Amino acid sequence: MYKPATIKDIAIALNLSPSTVSRALRDGYEISAGTKKIVTDYANSINYQSNPNALSLKNKRSFSIGIVVPELANSFFSQAIAGIESVAYESGYHTIITQTHDSSTRERTNANHLANRSVDGLLISMSSGTTDYTFLKTLHKNGLPIVFFDRIIDEIETFKVTSANFTGSYNATQSLIKSGRKRIAVLANAPQLSITNERLAGYKKALEDNKMPYNADLIRWCYKGGNDYQEVENAVISLLALTDQPDAIFITSDRISISCIRALKSLNADPNTMAVTGFSNSDVVDLLQPNFCYVRQKAFEMGQIAMQMLLKLIESKYPITEFETRVIDTEYHGMEKEN
């Protein structure tokens, strides 16, 4: 059976006291540079790894971070997690990743499970199915550091980071209007999500600035965020069935964008008469729909910032009472043509 090397093993091998070895490995100021080098070189040669359980008992920290996202297969969230892990790893933390599939029940279960596993903090992007935030308020009240990213809520005062959703949506809708589109439909995520409200507001403002009427009949809600393909396809079918059919669709989330493109192809919709613009971080979206114009979020950067915020909460020696909500610019990739 494999038995990992211990500080005691190193001490015996080098004829040093365990306390000297421990301080040398922690880069203690009281240990000479020569001794530190001897200890660290030997520790590396035998692949010594510190015992996280022992450290957590001593420091009352687990050096693990809980991450709760709607879906790992979503390009945006996979990129954000990569950003989170890049900072966590460099700071000596491990991550435990869970997904909710936009289910409020799973979200509550996952968050409570992570808290019970004594994670040092929680990074969460809200499920589209959650409207009651009591479980998060309880965890926060009990002292668990929580940072929200992308899908944020107002109910808990803490650090948050999200995208410039209003501006991204405004620019995307403006592009559709400048290309000659007159009836622009919307496939929107659940209405209680912060990103949905901000993106819909940007869409409405673009219509207003171009003296175009807002028509609620052109809005379709996708409560499951694109995870249920049939829900998206039904929404597309209902738009195509309108007597005065839309000539463009603006989509407010990554997963819905992919499902919408798939549905339009399945229904043999003419891409020349139905323009599509939406939020997407997928690297293959151009292959699926060559003329697809899209808003891209800086997901990796958002993940990095969220993790840095959480570390600030975890490692601060004093209670933090002033919090920041960071808003990161989006990038618009599209074409503007006059019909």
From TrEMBL:
What range(s) does the HTH lacI-type domain occupy? 5-59
Q: Which domain of life is it from?
A: Bacteria
For this UniProt record, the keywords arranged alphabetically read as follows: DNA-binding, Transcription, Transcription regulation
Q: Which Pfam families match?
A: LacI, Peripla_BP_4
Q: Which GO terms describe its molecular function?
A: DNA-binding transcription factor activity; transcription cis-regulatory region binding
Alphabetized InterPro entries for the sequence = HTH_LacI (IPR000843), Lambda_DNA-bd_dom_sf (IPR010982), Peripla_BP_I (IPR028082), SBP_2_dom (IPR025997)
Keyword S-adenosyl-L-methionine, does the record have it? no
Q: Which PANTHER family match?
A: HTH-TYPE TRANSCRIPTIONAL REGULATOR GALS, LACI-RELATED TRANSCRIPTIONAL REPRESSOR
Q: Provide the protein name.
A: LacI family DNA-binding transcriptional regulator
UniProt organism field: Mucilaginibacter glaciei
